Amino acid sequence: MMRKINLTDFVSWKLLIGLTLVVGCNTDGTQKTITYDMVIYGGTSAGVAAAIQASRMGKSVILLEPGQRIGGLTTGGLGQTDIGNKQAIGGIAREFYEGIKEYYDDPAHWKFQSQQDYQDGGQTRTESGEAAMWTFEPSAALKVYQDFIAEHNIELIMGQQLDRSSGVSKEDTNISAITMLSGETYRGKVFIDATYEGDLMAAAGVSYTVGRESNETYRETLNGVHTRLTDTTMTGYPSRNQVNHNLVDGVDPYVIAGDPGSGLLPHIDPEGPGDFGAADKRVQAYCFRMCLTDHPDNRIPFEKPAGYNELNYELLLRNYEAGEDGFPWINSKMPNRKTDTNNRTGFSTDFIGQNYHYPEASYQERERIIEQHRQYQQGLMWTLANHPRIPDHIRNEVARWGTCKDEFDRADGWQQQLYIREARRMIGEYVMTQYHCEGLEVASDPIGMGAYGMDSHNTQRYVSEEGWAKNEGNVEAKVQAPYPVSYRSITPKRQECTNLLVPVCLSASHIAFGSIRMEPVFMVLGQSAATAASVAIDQKSSVQDVSYQQLEPLLLAGKQVLEN
């Protein structure tokens, strides 16, 4: 049975299952704190993979999830697997995608469509006879993860939010325990921060950054502010930035067209854009990866949200009137007549410029930002499906779709998990940069492979020199081939923390993180983090002193892919 419990059940649950080997009593009768080999904070895809690997290596482990659903984006709507080369994915990550195929091999899981009628496409097309499947419903991903957790008897506790102000106890450079807002304390030998936000890393005093470095910082060409139409990397690959995902020329940015005195339309940054290649604290846009359906028995029509303000979508309307002819989303087909729907064109699901405070925000402020994103996207969908200024062919097509009745806990069919494309990024022992992605520099201690292009979504909307509304920050640059990700990029600086590993908010420049930040890669890095943690525990060493000569064969034994 899967050991999945909520906080309110935790104390009685510990007594019921009799964890007498790890939970005892002090002489005064008070309960001792449990000590684990590994404490994993964050039930993302990386956290789940890390917990599975810890169990396989014979280590006691607890997985703490701040929310009420495991799997992060993988169970939150991102069913169109983003990976440039599937052969770069091994280990538990590949087992997950093989589990997806097994799930869909069962005819009982095809409720709204026959298996024969479904055809995935694009970069994730499943080849004939392939043991893995790369497109899936959120509920399918959740079931596969739940089965993995049950199989490995992993202790999972939901609703555990770290006390970010005083919840990390350290003895010199070692974290000894972490305490939740609930008051529960968890002691461990090695800790893994698998959150999208890097909250444990930050609370432990580890160096990090938010936003974009300048090109000068790491001698890059694709970092910082991007206001030019084209650039070329040192390998000669073109970067598509201002051409893709931008408003067409001539879109007026003012409330009253042609009248600067009327003020800027909503969500245009009056301080933008900044100097080309310069650093800033802007964060690439977030959105919900919507799971939509056109099946009448499962569809919830798009509704106008409370507080809807048409002015928020005036740029969308003007963009079409100025000549935009593209469809405002990427509707990737998932099984059972569902989709993974993502951002496309200059005004779409990305809520550009409205997430700058999210990485450092309080839990309450983050919830407010998440709800703002949801209301923006709900309003966008209603506008696309109903507004008379939307072209007929787009309005009619969008109106066919809606959220799903059978996927998420909310009555409106919307998920809770926002697509946190980037938040904090550690500044650790080793920094992955553009040149690792391009193969010009090669990490000597690989723990997995990146393979996706260097991909940053827009970070701001501003007024161009011509007086038009424009987006800035989109970069799409190729990688030459799958490339190694360094073990040292998930380790903090030695003087800051010696028993923490960070497989998600790892040490990478903004543009390199844009390639690494893919869910299958996070699974790979989570598994490798737990493998390294096991070595550190057995050696009684810091994570920085883990011998790669000892780590590498264990990674290979776990079927990780470490080279082309």
Q: Could you characterize what this model shows?
A:
The chain is α+β, with helices and mostly antiparallel strands and 564 residues long. It has a domain at 292-404. Helices cover 24% and strands 19% of the residues. It has helices at 10-17, 45-56, 91-105, 138-151, 199-203, 314-321, 363-386, 392-399, 434-437, 510-516, 519-539, 548-557; strands spanning 3-6, 35-41, 61-65, 155-158, 168-171, 174-179, 185-193, 208-210, 230-232, 238-240, 254-256, 259-264, 292-293, 299-301, 329-334, 338-343, 402-404, 424-426, 446-450, 454-456, 460-463, 469-472, 475-477, 483-486, 500-501. The strands form eight sheets. Strands 1, 2, 3, 4, 5, 6, 7 and 25 form an eight-stranded mixed β-sheet that branches. Strands 9-10-23-20 form a four-stranded antiparallel β-sheet. Helix 2 (45-56) runs parallel beside helix 11 (519-539). The longest helix is centred in the middle third of the chain and has 24 residues, at 363-386.
